[in-house]
Amino acid sequence: MVYTTVHLIRHGEVYNPDRVLYGRLEGYPLSARGREMAERVASTLQEQGADIVDVTASPLLRAQQTATPIAEGFGLDLGTDERVIEAGNHFEGTSVAKDPTHLLRPARMVKLINPWKPSWGEPYVEVIERMTAAIRDARARAVGHEAVLVSHQLPIWTMRRHLEGRSMVHDPRKRNTTLASITSLTFDDGTLITVDYAEPCRDLLPDSSTAVLP
Q: What is the mean pLDDT of residues 3-26?
């Protein structure tokens, strides 16, 4: 038996005072609290004695900044994988959290009619395909050890629901993938045997008045 674990880590809090749905937009670095989250995740993995031999992140700045202290803490080079990038979203660039009426405009309402696809962005099936491939390759690079993939809320939560055999249709407000959370997939050879979840930054999470969008 060869056990390999791939940790799917969501990035830390982003500096986003206007609460823009930033999606794949350039920029949007971690906030001061987000940088603290990144350091906390790195120190948590070290304190747990994790056997990390590979650290890879989405190309987006917030993911790269979250992954950097992890890679540095384990003396590793940081890799980049486009396949773990944030999901595409038709509402990218809008401030829907501040003003939900953005969604009531006729041209935008049509994007909300099919939660199965979903019609408001990249199809779940495509997210699952690219995340599955990235996880498979990370597992191959870290056979018998542990790997880290720093990604984003929707890709991680969609992948978890898929692995647990649950429907992809869900309320985005109820995703159990908080900022800087760790979703750990452990494999026996190529067979998934456990899915674990941890929130090392629970005490640092913003409250509802300061919450940021994924």
A: 92
- Which residues, including other chains, have CB under 8 Å from residue 110's CB and lie 6 or more apart? 119
Note the pTM of the prediction, 2 decimals: 0.87
With 50 as the cut, is the pLDDT of residue 208 above it?
no
Task: Write the pLDDT tens digit of every residue in 130-144.
Answer: 999 999 999 999 999
Domain spans of the chain?
3-204
Q: Are strands 78-80 and 146-151 parallel, antiparallel or unpaired?
A: unpaired
Helix axes 153-163, 124-141, angle to 10 degrees: 90
3-class DSSP state of 145: coil
Dump pLDDT digits (tens) for 172-184.
777 889 999 999 9
3-class DSSP assignment, residue 112: helix
The CATH code that applies to domain 3-204 is: 3.40.50.1240
Q: Which contiguous run of DSSP H or E holds residue 5?
A: strand 3-10
Question: To 10 degrees, the CA torsion angle through 186, 191, 193, 195?
Answer: 50
- Burial of residue 152, with CB atoms counted within 10 A of its CB: 0-12 exposed, 13-18 middle, 19 or more buried: buried
